[in-house]
């Protein structure tokens, strides 16, 4: 099968149109990789017209995703329109959360462009080889990472941002530094969404406990550090 046939086999017509649009505008070139495939998204790498390597995350127009997200979208206060619009809104939320994290100085891929169901962002890695999630590449200094990641959670929280799916699967080890990815389940912090923040903190504590570290802080203490009134 030729490359274009593979893509048309995998992607629906709407997605192919969106890929073409980003190619026509010079944000991406041919899709190479893929570097990540899940039930709900594909991530490729590509080169833009300036020769910069970028990561391209495409949310599939997948009926299973759709089943999972309505309640979540309700928490975000937006649940209108047809199926494709909902996936596009979902993508836009992810892009906005990623942008917010980038703007407050968290180590995340630089956001470059969001179009319909596609996010173009900085590629974390070198020479076409993506940095690996910490679950697969544990060659890092936990003494540094643990407090740093807790600081990130606090900083995001003080800026009303919850990652929502924080775990060693969504933290890339790039040159020994943690890069947080995948804001697809991001939420604004409020009393309604606090439990998602607690879950993120518990996941990180559990992970470092499993690596033999003593808990730095209980989740309740961290929450108080973020906002005394929560
Ligand atoms: N900016 C990036 N640079 C390098 N690799 C990435 C980047 N974004 C995602 N990946 C790779 O793609 C995989 C899936 O991306 P992710 O955003 O976590 O999507 P999903 O929602 O499917 O979990 C990641 O585990 C990582 O290996
Ligand atoms: Mg992920």
UniProtKB/TrEMBL annotation:
InterPro entries: Kinase-like_dom_sf, RIO-type_Ser/Thr_kinase, RIO_dom, RIO_kinase
Annotated catalysed reactions: L-threonyl-[protein] + ATP = O-phospho-L-threonyl-[protein] + ADP + H(+); L-seryl-[protein] + ATP = O-phospho-L-seryl-[protein] + ADP + H(+)
Membrane keyword on record: no
Family assignment from sequence similarity: Belongs to the protein kinase superfamily. RIO-type Ser/Thr kinase family.
Organism for this UniProt entry: Candidatus Parvarchaeum acidiphilum ARMAN-4
Coiled-coil portions: none
Gene3D superfamilies in alphabetical order: Phosphorylase Kinase, domain 1, Transferase(Phosphotransferase) domain 1
A Pfam family per the record: RIO1
GO molecular function: ATP binding; metal ion binding; protein serine/threonine kinase activity
EC number of the protein: 2.7.11.1
The keyword Kinase appears for this protein: yes
Matching PANTHER family: SERINE/THREONINE-PROTEIN KINASE RIO1
Domain of life: Archaea
UniProt keyword terms in alphabetical order: ATP-binding, Kinase, Magnesium, Metal-binding, Nucleotide-binding, Serine/threonine-protein kinase, Transferase
Record-given protein name: non-specific serine/threonine protein kinase
Ranges where the RIO kinase domain occurs: 2-228
């Amino acid at each position: 099968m030729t490359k274009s046939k593979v893509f048309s086999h995998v992607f629906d017509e709407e997605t192919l149109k969106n890929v073409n649009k980003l190619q026509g505008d010079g944000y991406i070139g041919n899709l190479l990789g893929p570097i990540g495939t899940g039930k709900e998204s594909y991530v490729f790498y590509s080169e833009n017209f300036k020769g910069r390597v970028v990561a391209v995350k495409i949310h599939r127009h997948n009926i299973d995703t759709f089943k999972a997200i309505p309640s979540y979208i309700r928490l975000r206060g937006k649940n209108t329109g047809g199926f494709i619009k909902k996936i596009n809104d979902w993508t836009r939320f992810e892009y906005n959360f990623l942008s917010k994290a980038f703007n407050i100085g968290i180590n995340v891929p630089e956001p470059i462009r969001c179009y319909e169901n596609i996010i173009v962002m900085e590629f974390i890695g070198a020479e076409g080889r993506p940095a690996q999630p910490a679950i697969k590449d544990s060659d890092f200094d936990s003494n540094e990472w643990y407090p740093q990641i807790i600081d990130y959670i606090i900083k995001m929280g003080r800026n009303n941002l919850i990652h929502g799916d924080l775990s060693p699967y969504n933290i890339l080890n790039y040159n020994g530094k943690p890069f947080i990815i995948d804001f697809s389940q991001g939420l604004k912090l409020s009393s309604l969404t606090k439990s998602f923040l607690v879950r993120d903190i518990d996941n990180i504590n559990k992970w470092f406990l499993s690596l033999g570290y003593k808990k730095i802080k209980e989740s309740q203490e961290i929450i108080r550090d973020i906002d005394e009134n929560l």
